[in-house]
Each structure stands twice: as C-alpha cells, then as structure tokens.
Amino acid sequence: MAKNQFAQPHFQDEEAARQWFEAARWSSRPICPNCKSAKFYATKKLGRYRCAAPTCRKDFTVMTGTVMERSHAKLTQWAVAFHMGASSKKGFSAHQLHRELGCQYNTAWFLHHRVMEAIRRGGLDLPPLGGDGSVVEADETYQGKRDEPRVSPQRGNRPYKHSSRGPRNMRPIVALIERDGRVRTFHVPVADQRAGLGNLHRTLSGVSA
C-alpha cells in the first residue's frame, strides 16, 4: 500500500503546522519582521506575538512579511503547497493543488503562485515593491471561469450575459509590475480602480500582498 505523503501532523493540524513554519523561519524564537527585534510578548491569540521594542510594538505572526501574508488559506494548506513545490521534480500546477486540497481553484492558484515565487527567490520573505526612483505599474486581466457567476441586480439577480464590456464571469486578476521585472498578482472580486489602488498601496507601503 502506498504511503500517504501528507499523513504527518503539520499537514493535518493547524497548531502543528504553525510550529513547523515557526521552526523553519525562526529556528529558536520569534523575531519581529518589522524591526528585527528578538524581544516579544505572547498575546491571548496563539501564534500571535507583540514586539517588545518601544519604537515598534507591532503584532506579528509567522506569516507576517512572507509570501503567506494577507492570505485566508490555512497553514496546513500552505504546508501541502510548499511540500508539493519542493518534492515535485517537474514542478506542480494549481490544478494539482486544487485537487489535493479540495479547495476553490482561486485559492489553489494563489497558493501556487506564491510558493513558486518563494522557490524562485529562495526564501519566505516578500519585500515590498518600489523604492526611490522605481516605477510600479498596475494592470488587470482575466483567467478561468468563476465558481459562481456574478449576478446583476438589474436583471433580477440573474447571471450577467457576456458582452463587449468585458468577461463578466471570469476571475479578475490585478497585476503590479515593477520596471526591473518583478511582478505581483492578486485575485480580486472585481478588477476596478479601487482594487488596483488598494493592492498597490499595501504593496508599496511595505505590507506584503
């Protein structure tokens, strides 16, 4: 009988996954990703720490400042995604991850994109885009069908029809592109100006997306 490669605790239990990621990132004790201080306080929420440096005092987790930040995916899902990325000789696809996790495809796509970015750079850290004299551009595109089509209040909450105004029932993606070639992509509910500017602000201000 084939051995289940995802039978280990950090693929099944959130607390075990948190400890697994903390050991991989910090080795011995948490370090504030904002100011690099090794002094911290534990908070009431398990896995969330507060920096003890007087000039910082920010809360952080093992996900802060990494490719996992601002994700609603479970740490066990991230563990599976990283394992598949590291153990696959020819790489892996978002569709493979989607089937393995049984999650929505846009979640698998996001996980796959971030894991491949971490593997390409060789680390979990995700530094902000931009800087002095750097230009960051924003654009949008569409990929794949939505799990549930958008509905139109004007049409009695029936699905939008395809029209020349754009692919209503496809997944919108906003891309932020730095002139030196770095790219960040985000699945968003609607590819409008608000979504683009919101992701641009968070990414340039040092809050990894």
Structure description:
By secondary structure, the protein is of the alpha+beta class. The protein folds into 2 domains: 9-121, no CATH class; 136-204, no CATH class. Helix content is 32%, strand content 17%. The chain has 6 helices and 8 strands. The protein has helices at residues 9-12, 14-26, 75-87, 94-101, 105-121, 193-204, and strands at residues 40-42, 49-51, 59-60, 136-145, 151-152, 158-159, 170-178, 183-187. The strands form 3 sheets. It has a 3-stranded antiparallel beta sheet, with no helix packed on it. A 3-stranded antiparallel beta sheet has the order 4-7-8, sandwiched between helices. The chain has a two-stranded antiparallel sheet with strand order 5-6. It is globular, with a radius of gyration of 19 Å. The termini are far apart.
- Give the H and E element order: HHEEEHHHEEEEEH
Sheet with most strands: strand arrangement: 1-2-3
Shape by Cα distribution: globular
Rg, Cα atoms, Å: 19 Å
Strand segment tally: 8
Q: Which sheet architecture does the biggest sheet show?
A: 3 strands, antiparallel
**What is the averaged pLDDT score?**
76
Taking pLDDT < 50 over at least 5 consecutive residues as the criterion, the unreliable ranges are 199-209
Work out the count of structural domains.
2
The helix content is 25-40%
Counted by DSSP, the helix tally is 6
Strand content: 15-25%
The helix-and-strand class reads alpha+beta
N-to-C terminal Cα separation, in Å? 41 Å
